[in-house]
Amino acid sequence: MNEWTLTKTRLFEGVWEGVLTRAGEDEAAPEIEVTHQQEPVAGVAVTAKPEEKLWVVRVPVPVEKIADGVQTFVIRDRRSGEVLDSFALLSGDVLSYDIRAEMALLREELDLLKRAFRRHCLDTM
């Protein structure tokens, strides 16, 4: 069982951010690796916040990794090899079958119908 806990805080401006905490008193710095399709992602930063007993993990999403389909990034503890977290980016045609995309389309169609109905009601008065 891993002693590290990684909690996502946000994905903002192309950078995934999370907070890394450790169970126990060991103060050794974490060794984190992030991979996409078994290839390492460059630019990963782990910043210590000793007063809060945590580390801030920042993973820049490389522009060249953004493509149609599901792109999954895996965050691991390099020492033990255990997966701490992962995140995925979805884009392109794969979303046409996603229920969230379908709901967004239905909402847009409903808004269009509401505007047309209101316009019709105003014209017939």
Order of helices and strands: EEEEEEEEH
Number of domains: 1
Q: N- to C-terminal separation?
A: 71 Å
Structural class: alpha+beta
Q: Give the overall average pLDDT.
A: 89
Fraction of helical residues = 10-25%
Shape: elongated
Q: List how many beta strands DSSP finds.
A: 8
State the CATH superfamily name: Immunoglobulins
Number of helices: 1
Reading side by side through the largest sheet, how are the strands ordered? Answer: 1-2-6-5
The Rg value, from CA coordinates, equals 22 Å
CATH class: Mainly Beta
Q: So, CATH architecture?
A: Sandwich
Strand content: 35-45%
CATH topology: Immunoglobulin-like
Largest sheet descriptor: 4 strands, antiparallel
| Low-confidence runs | none
Description:
The chain has a 4-stranded antiparallel β-sheet with strand order 1-2-6-5, with no helix packed on it. Strands 4-3-7-8 form a 4-stranded antiparallel β-sheet, with no helix packed on it. Helices cover 20% and strands 43% of the residues. Strand 3 (32-36) and strand 4 (39-40) form a beta hairpin. It has one domain: Immunoglobulin-like (Sandwich). By secondary structure, the protein is α+β, with helices and mostly antiparallel strands.
Give me the secondary-structure topology.
Elements: E1 4-12, E2 15-22, E3 32-36, E4 39-40, E5 45-49, E6 54-60, E7 69-77, E8 83-91, H1 99-123
Antiparallel strand pairs: 1-2, 2-6, 3-4, 3-7, 5-6, 7-8
